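Notes, p. 3: input format for complexes.
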Amino acid sequence: MSKDIRFSVNGKPVTAPGDEPDLPLVDFLQEDLGQTGTKFCCGIGVCRACTVAVRRHPQAPLEPMLSCSTPVSELEGVDILTVEGQSVDGHPNALQEALLTNFAFQCGYCTPGFVMAATVMMDRLRRSPVKMEDLDPFIDNWLGDHICRCTGYVRYYRAIKQVILNSPGLVA
Amino acid sequence: MLKTAGGAVALNLLPFPFKALEASITPAPAHWAKGPGEARFRIDGLDKVLGRKVYARDYHATDMPGWPQAERPVMIIRAVHADRPFNGLDLSGLPPELQPETIVTGQQILQDGIILPYGINYDYVVVAGNVPDYLGQPVAFLIFKDRKSYRRAKKRLQFNNAIQQYGAQTSPSPPVEYTPLTDYVRKASPTGGKDLFSYTLNGGDKDYTKEARTVENAINAEIANKTASGEWVQFQADFSMQAMDPMFMEPEAGIAWYDRNKASLSLVLGTQSPDGDISSALDIFSSDNSHNPIKTVNLTSCYPGGGFGGRDKSIFTLYLAIAAVYANGPVRIAQDRFEQFQAGLKRHACDISQSLVFDKKGQMQALNARMDFDGGGRKNLSPYVAQLAGLCVGGGYEIPQSVIKAEAHHSVNVTGGSQRGFGGPQAFFATETLMDEAAESLAIDAIELRRMNMLKRGMNTVVGGPILEELRLGEILDKAAHHPVWRDRDKERQKHTGDGQLYGVGFALSNQAYGTSGDGMLGYVSLGPDGSLQVTSNAVDMGNGSATTLAVVTATYLGRNADVITMGDAASFNQLQLQSGYDGANPGWDNPRWVKKVSGSSSACLTAFHQVHAIEQASLVLLETAILPAANALWKKDVDRRSIRWRNGALTSPGNRPLDLSEIARWIYDNDGYAGAMIHAYFQAEWVQAEYQIGNRPYRFAIDALGLFKAGSFSPILVNRQNGVYPSDESARYSRTTFAPCGNLIALTVDPSSGQVRILNSISILNAGRIITKDLVEGQSEGGIAMAIGYTLLEDMPPGLSGPAAGNWNLNRYHVPLASDVPIHDLNLETLLPLPGDRTAKGIAEAVMCSVAPAIANALADATGKRFRDLPITNAKILEALA
Ligand code: FES
Ligand code: FES
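Output follows (1055 residues plus FE2/S2 (inorganic) cluster):
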């Protein structure tokens, strides 16, 4: 029997059974933990709907992770952040609020992926702000591969840019 | 046949909120509304942005109160040949612990008396020994005992075609047409456009088809003569369009449980057709020799993760139902993307052969179109898609003579369905690119040529149906003609001479219809003892914003947005005891419970006009029959109806103290007043109107069935309609009378060395009528343009085994637009201001994508000098054309 895999999800310790080491993280989250906020769409690492954030050690920057293509065996000791961990007492955070009030999404199925990718991106900006003129390409670099079938992306970009500009210190 | 809505579905009218149905019931989150009639964000948005359970894929048996906890995953094995007999499955490669608990075969389904309901004409599961009717037809359902064995077994079975055993290749089955076939022939007087012959006028004739051939021959003869003499000019072209995947992001998924003791089937899924799904699920188990009697179907309708027509009468629901009756407990089918590509409904591949005939001045004289839709393996809604394409191919033009034949046929390819635009995108692509060719050849400005021929109120469509509203095509054309992108296109082209890019601008116009040829709508508005409002609709919000829209339109008559919205609830409306269909002796409209059509599927274009009408009428009934009597009692006098206004949630009337809705509600609950109105409305060229005797006076509403709920009661008092004004028989043949015209300007560049297209600007000019929520309309337009860019330039799927039917397709080979493919900073929507006094809100979700493909193709022609008639217009095709 292989060893169980221990890591944390939104700060809470979890254990993935070692007998299914190739279990994709998205299945572990949805089926074993019942946390269905992280979405499954293509399952092959293209659409990015399943994006979560990972912090590999306490001081490390956040990194995006495709939960459909990451087996639990690779997660020993890391911190995973998902959309469920972004709200505060059931209230949307500033990013989520901006997505809401800009009517950024429609069906919303791609939204958790955008939320988590934008969260990682803002963590990077906090660590090293970009110049105003570099902001659009920076956003495109971080979000440009995310697929949304409903919206045409206009309002996602608008909302996310708005949050960045309203958060002190992200743009140099 | 006389049918009741939803058949024998048991009624569960539940006080809200009810845990089991929370997927479809949304209590309004705090701060979602700005004020009465206005949304700050989507009513369903908070749950979605926080990652709460709202989609069918989020649900497991353990989430459902009263269900057994163990859930059995199901894998559907699908045919990879349709030209040889399927002989069986070989699962010997699976170790014993991974073997399925149950294998459902085609033979077993037949033996157990599970029948094919109306419109489903091929076996659910291939019977061993038979040649599959199409690629991807199920050959077995494998039901596994638990998730772990399912996951492990699936790894070994998926993409492993060797497990399917086939006999020797045989000749393929002959093509079959899906009926009804569309045959629209129209001849109008050359001046004044009065129909001499048309489907509307003559479609009811016994020998319409024969008459139509005579008229067709006369039209063709006239075209031949006048083109030969040089009096008329004919432009002819052949177009082809690929199949397209709706690629909604949530692959179809659902859970089901068949409770044999209670003969009840519970389904949890995201569907656009909850009403149809319930009745189909009942029908298939209704034969006399059915081994699985079902008295009740409970459907929990979840917010779908996208729809676009791909969840409209999807066979997926019936697979889930069938799997459930064979399992020892709840089942779950959750398709992955490969499976969704292999089996999910597609936009039809289509071939169009078309000619437009003009006189030398540019006046349109005739249209001839043959449209052939690849319906794929199942009929679904294919012939009706072809039918609407038959109307759309006439564009926004008055054409005195037309011959239009549109049909969909069976093939071994993946089934085509009612994708966004419903045949419109294909038809407008052909007509609007051919219009441009004609303009160029006639040396008339492309926008001017359209103006010369545009449809106006009082004229008729190619079907012969009257235009009953102001389409305002002229205003759309004016705005396009004066737009800098059009006006300054040559100047802009100059700028690109230096950068090696080819610059072009294209325009196209669409006159897409919304709704169907007859729409039955349901709505229920109820007032709580605290003055809160609950809206219940059978409609489904696929992301198009219908939940939000229906929650704000209660404010029109009740001064307050809904506090709770329940979507996709088909069962509650059984309480209206509606009947539809004909049984020969049935008196039809004379029977107050009879309606022409109870309900249909949800499409995004049905919200603003149709569903909103239902909720506004229910609100109006409540105002008239409950709130005003209560207010009069509280004010102790009968106030003038015209003097009342809602202000800040209170009913006001000059000289009287404002009454908060909560105070009115309290009075109603204390005095046994009415607190709920459930209505049915029917639109066919106009809304049915009728009188309802309530208390001692008749009220007139634009509805055809009414149930009133006393405060605190869960069963309605049915009020019979009387003195109704009903649609004419002829109007059933108008095809459509509601239109959402849209023009599109596209500016783009082409890199001649790579064929790469960059869309620089997109300007949509839309007649949306009254706009209820601007952000929702804009969002639909933006999404429609992105989807149309994919359709025109990127998305391709070949038929047969080189396409998704093989089961190995995914997003690595099917390219939907990314943000970089869309001009996200230059996507503009201009809407026409509503005409004074016109409250019509139009369903625009389909209209907004119809003119985009031809506008892109016309811009490409402007840039390259080459015409592109085959979609998608890939870089390779452009390079080839430029070579
Ligand atoms: S589900 Fe598409 S990238 Fe993970
Ligand atoms: S909002 Fe539906 S996929 Fe993005």
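Chain B is about 25% helix and 25% strand.
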